[in-house]
Amino acid sequence: MAKLYFHYSTMNAGKSTILLQAAHNYRERGMVPYLLTAKLDERAGHGRIASRIGIGAEADTFDDQEDLFAKLTARMAQGPVACVFVDEAQFLKPDQVWQLARAVDDLRVPVMCYGLRVDFRGELFPGSATLLALADEMREVRTICHCGKKATMVVRLGPDGQALRDGAQVQIGGNESYVALCRRHWREAMEDRPTPQG
């Protein structure tokens, strides 16, 4: 039975590596995966999903205006698709997550989404929030903070190397811009201070 999956984590947890391995497993068994990634993230090149460990694959792209149900319907009309893999799923619009859910239900194709849960301010991305609400199954991809605890947050670094507290939710970047931290060290980096009671 087809399902909508959400594999979520913070930066640098290996989401793209897991996606690429899973897609490879389908190909190895003679099945065809369909890979999608956000058009706005071209760090690995246009229409390419790449991992920090050096593996990559070509992918179709989506932008925030596309109807993904229509896109998947058109792709499946060209030939069988065993599974859809969506990288950078945090950039999906809520309507697009509903479109992917419809593809699972009506086209009976599994859709596996991989993305960030929260931004550098500790706030849910709209696409991730909708995936958390609609996904049939969710899996956390874990990574660690410099202290050894599980990292669940990310800070965005400014040119001076200090954590930024404000800015646009979306800014494409890698290790030069973002650091994964546990909640305690994220709070310290963001200079979180308890609000006095009274």
UniProtKB/TrEMBL annotation:
Zn(2+) binds at C145, C147, C182, H185. Its EC number is 2.7.1.21. It comes from the Bacteria. The active site is at E88 (proton acceptor). ATP binds at S9, T10, M11, N12, A13, G14, K15, S16, D87, E88, A89, Q90. Its main location: cytoplasm. Homotetramer. PANTHER family: THYMIDINE KINASE, THYMIDINE KINASE, CYTOSOLIC. This is Thymidine kinase. It comes from Roseibaca calidilacus. The gene is tdk.
